[in-house]
């Protein structure tokens, strides 16, 4: 048994456990339902507020587009107004010129009339003819004024028709843009995040395949399926000249739905793209992006982000083909310059080798010349030394000849008398010897 207390009369009474559980379930279900209804109402209010915010955002974008269209219409109206002003100014100037001309003619006619009253009949006839000519010219001027007036009216009517046509064309463009916006919203609402990204890749692949056969017949363009480095890009483009690669581009495509809660920025993907480019050994890197749709920086054209990562660009899908054309043209010129530089370098190397060989020949010839000159000088010195030695021998021989002549003279001048002069012993011996060998000779008949 369970006891229950009445909140009004404070009376306590007992109930069966089954009845107690039944009452508790009723109270619990009622409280749960009230809480559920309250939370449902709060969620409904939040969804309505978010829908109103999205609607306001879309309406603001549409109003911005309408304001841009109004600005264009205003510019067109200003051009038409300026054209009308120019036409009116031209007409007024022409009318003033014609009025001045008419006034001048009237003055001439008045002068002629004055002269006509004071001249004879012949002079009068000439003046009448002059007046007729003046009248004819005035009539021609009037016709010219009428023609110009008709032309001005025609130009004004054409300008009005052109203005109406421009207004209709702008309105048709606005209607087409509105339809495209609605179609784009519906398409994005039906797509998942993966399908949105793949749609941009398919678009870029189709755009390239349209011009592949005519513009890049030798190029390679396909998805990057190699994730061995930890990550991969979307597409790789490579082109060749005579079988030699002269350009390579790593592409990354990024898109997201309008209702995505966390909005990404283009700068969030630049580091990964640079790593993929380095891993796959590509020269350039290009991010094809629909992110940050309201950014004037990315909406104006090709954005060079080389100050962040070398040789990297961010483009919208409409600039996908132009960026390929721009980079390939620059790379072709660079390849041509490289080839010309290589040719010049080879020629320079040939000239350098020739100069080195010539210098080496000069060095060897100079060395051999110096050696030959040294040996020649040594031989000349040796000859000079030999001549000096021979001169000394000659002088010695000449000196020896003098000594021999003097010795011969001394021998020829030598006599027994001179030898024995002052030597009585030797005189006696020679005397005895002569006497013994030749007794008949006188002692004074000797040598």
List the keywords.
447 residues; 8 helices; single chain; 72% helix; disordered C terminus; two-stranded antiparallel ribbon; alpha/beta; Trna Endonuclease, Chain: A, domain 1; 6-stranded mixed β-sheet; flat
What does this structure look like?
With 447 residues, the chain is α/β, with parallel strands linked by helices. It folds into 3 domains: 17-186; 194-343, Trna Endonuclease, Chain: A, domain 1, CATH 3.40.1350; 415-447. Helices cover 72% and strands 9% of the residues. It has 8 helices and 8 strands; from the N terminus they run ββαααβββαβαββααα. The protein has helices at residues 17-116, 121-190, 193-215, 270-279, 296-299, 320-413, 416-420, 424-437, and strands at 2-5, 12-15, 220-223, 235-241, 244-254, 284-289, 303-304, 312-315. A 6-stranded mixed sheet has the order 3-4-5-6-8-7, with helices on both faces. Strands 1-2 form a two-stranded antiparallel ribbon. α4 (270-279) links the parallel β5 and β6 (284-289). α1 runs antiparallel to α2 (121-190). The chain starts with a strand and ends in a 10-residue tail after the last helix. Mean pLDDT is 77; it is low at 189-197 and 441-447.
